[in-house]
Records
---
Amino acid sequence: MENIKYNLYERKDPVVLPETLGFGRYFSDNVFVMDYNPQKGWHNPQITALGNLHMHPAASVLHYGQTIFEGLKAYYTPDGEYQLFRPEENFKRLNNSARRLCMPEVDVDFCVEALKELVWIDREWVPRGDKESLYIRPFMFGEEAMLGVKPSDTYKLIFLLSPVGAYYPEGFQAIKILIQDEYVRTVRKGLGECKTAGNYAASMAGQEIARREGCTQVLWLDAVELKYIEEVGTMNIFIQFNDQVATPMLSGGILPGITRKSSMRILRDWGYNVSERQIPLKEVLDRYEKGEVLEIFGTGTAAIISSVGAVRYGGHDFVLNNGNVGPLAERLFNELTGIQKGKVEDRYGWITKVEPLAVNA
Ligand code: COI
């Protein structure tokens, strides 16, 4: 791979972050950008000042949605260091999405090195607050100007950085989620296991119903039988029954979450019986009535560990832990964010330190 070229933003004053960050509203000074064409493959890697994109109105992404993305975070540690959580997993998953959408794969090691360099350059943008971090959005899209339906010839890969706090408006309080059966989001053998824009576009009408019913998110059912619980729009779902912690298995219709996988590992190490399986909605409702549903929580990079205080279905609210954050979700949140922020020992080797570049050496 060629060396990265630099055309950095010339910052005169120190970065001052707003008191309340929310999610995805602010962006750092610079981005990483790289181009693809069939002759040169991936080429022209640059770290450059953030600016608008120039695209032909016929660019394939604008018409046929050939675009994929990832989400990961950089953290500031008590030792004054900066670190990433399992970045190679994100670039491997980006490659899985790329294969499904006929897009070019990236070199995972190069991308991790380039990302470390970008975060190092923009390290002043990594927030220091307890529940804050720098969200990283790698994304790729087809930019060939061509109205025929076919894979684009040319692509761009960009890494965008955004200092963030809590994803949901509730902050880190428990959220309420809606089960609705008017719309479905993804289907097995479709794009459900890819991180691609269409899945999120498909979720918005259901999301609007949730908002009208006073809920923050939709808990989607499987698209074929509307019988099994699958995934919340922005996170994977876990249910703590009295005898096991269950999460929907990777059916092809849901996202293989990195926080999901990490949470299962931690829970198993804590001695929980973790089961990945089909979870019928009926089982959850029946066992709720018997008092056998102890907790529900979601896992995701943006959402971290989000406790569910109530599930709304068929006009009824099924309340958990009096609508408060559940003890298992809280323990898992503390453990995971402890590892991510360098406050708990990284006993799994999940952490990558951010240092200035090895990639151009
Ligand atoms: C993430 O957790 O990184 C996500 O991609 C969820 C969302 C903000 C789309």
---
Amino acid sequence: MNILCNIPVRRKIILIIMLVSMASLSLAVSAFFFMERYNARQIAANNLQTMAEIIAANSKAAILFSDNIAAEETLEFLHYQDHILAATIYGMDLEPFAVYKKPGVEVDITAPSSEGNNVLFWRDYVELITRIHHEDVPIGHIYLRSDFRLIQDHLSWYVSIALLVFIASLLIALVLSDRLQRIITDPLLRLSEVARKITTEKNYSLRLQSESKDEVGNLITDFNGMLDQIQIRDEELEVHRSALEDLVAQRTSALESANGEMEAAKREAEEIADRMEYQAHHDHLTGLPNRTLLIDRIGRALSHAHREQALAGLLFLDLDRFKLINDSLGHAIGDELLRVVAQRLERCIREDDTVARLGGDEFMVLLPSIEKTSDAGYIGKRIIDALNEPIICDGFELNATTSIGVSIYPYDGEDTDTLIKSADISMYRAKSLGRNKLVYYTAEMNEESRKRLILENDLRKALEKQELTLLYQPIVDTRKNAVISVEALMLWNHPTMGLVPPAEFIPLAEDSGLIVPIGEWVIRTALRKLRDCHNAGHPDLRIAVNLSPTQLSRPGLVSVIEQSIDEFQINPCRVDFEITESVAMQNLDTASVTLEKLKGLGVSITLDDFGTGYSSLSHLNSLPIDTIKIGQSFVRNIPESMGDMSIAQAIIAMANSLDLSLIAEGVEHIKQMNFFRQQGIHVIQGYLFSKPVPEEELMEMLGSHSTRFPLDVVK
Ligand code: C2E
Ligand code: MG
Ligand code: MG
């Protein structure tokens, strides 16, 4: 069966037709053969029976009369019957009565094997035995033998013909089946072809022409119907697919845009994080690293230096008198100044170095790897030089000098905090040494710094505890031999340290901002004292009050002075305010604005310590000053130093030409006084006349000055 499954349909059809044809032909041939054989036998049997009856009728009398010869004559006609081989007439005793044998044929005549009518068919012949009756009484038997080979030959011939017909039929069936199977297989093959094409090309519009109304036709119709359905489904599927593709495309683009947005949001978040990270580690004003980042870098630098056994340097910078600029010109200019300073600092350092802003006017420079201690000084010097170049901000020409403290790893500290502290301390030392300087840290500074901290703390309480006091130093007009003015000089009566001179605590007060309330106290106390003096009978006495740079920068200064003048009912023209030349020169624009306002109140302005601030004539001209005080630094070496004398003379000439009054201060010796008097300077201040004295002594001095001052000596 399996073999049948695997052979093509057309072969199957041919095979089936052939088998059916063979079966039906075989049946037909067999039926005809057996019919023919039966008929041949019947004819043979009937023929013999007729012969027997003729013989019986003709031989009856011979038997009755036992006439053998007559009986044998009766049998003689059998010579004309070719197919009769032998004939025998028997009597009732079954003994042969007459015998006939075809000539040339050997026949064994035996007694009949059975009685009655009986036909027997043998291979080559047919036998008949029948009784002979006479008046219904059996009188003998007749035996006939007929040749059957003719009939057999006829049958053989017939079978041959049948076989030939059988084979011819089979051949015709084969040819016909081969032709006819196409009626069935051709549409099937076309169906299969179309199905294959559809499968490979996915073209569901292909159809098969149905040419018949039979099952194959139905199959094709159904197949086409199925294709219709598939095509509809396919089109629907196509629609769905394209809808799905559209949807997918939409989703994809939505996803892409969402992705894009997400990417953008991510980038933004990263940027924000970067910005935050940047802001967390950088100073927003200058863009420099801030304290946090600096400390981190110092930590790394120290670890590196430790590993490499190298040196690292730290520079602590504080701009000199930045507060003054900031307070007087405003924060915008202060900020701009800081930005410019930051840029200049960056230009002074190498790539590996870090310059950071700690806040306010404090900067720090980290030199992570230096070969020798002096390298740090070299960079520091470069910075000082760079900042000494004037900075133009909003039309103002500013001088932003800086004081620099230097500490070196590992000598001045092995950890970040100690190293910063050391640099900080040395920076303060630079400040106290007159600013615009670089100072290396030394171990002794630590003690000084500690003291300084204690001192600053004590200074906060000094005002409350009334530890501050004013001393008054007379300023004498040598022509009148009279005290025409007094300079109020502050002194701190420290509970444990005793008297602390202003040079030691005023820078501290300035740095801590305490100078503002202290300065106000000085102004009020001094003006009150002046009122007392006026009231005590010295109405022409003047007073000189020192102003610090920080005070000068505060907008409240003018109103404080105004209030005090009003309060103590003082004529403002009796009041001088002293500002040191160097301060005024560094912040010329600021100073001139405030000084103009003060001038507006009616007070006079004195340029103190003249000769130390490198004023040019034009600068002097732009400041609203009335008087110049020739500084101690020149006076000290007069008359020994010819140079100082020349400078003093030049200053005098310049002041005269600008129509400014002159005071010589720090005059300790008569020779010095004489020098100035010879130069036409008669207003003198100095130990020659008096040291600064407490208020009680001042009154006394004012009352008896003429006896105290040895002016006669110089006459
Ligand atoms: P200054 O304004 O130039 O004051 C003069 C200084 O020279 C005073 O020093 C005074 O005692 C000293 N002196 C005067 N005559 C002589 C002399 O013949 N020989 C010597 N060697 N020195 C003499 P002092 O009191 O120590 O004051 C120092 C500086 O402190 C002052 O210099 C002034 O700039 C500042 N100062 C003093 N009091 C105040 C104040 O109330 N406010 C402000 N802002 N500064 C003040
Ligand atoms: Mg002074
Ligand atoms: Mg002075």
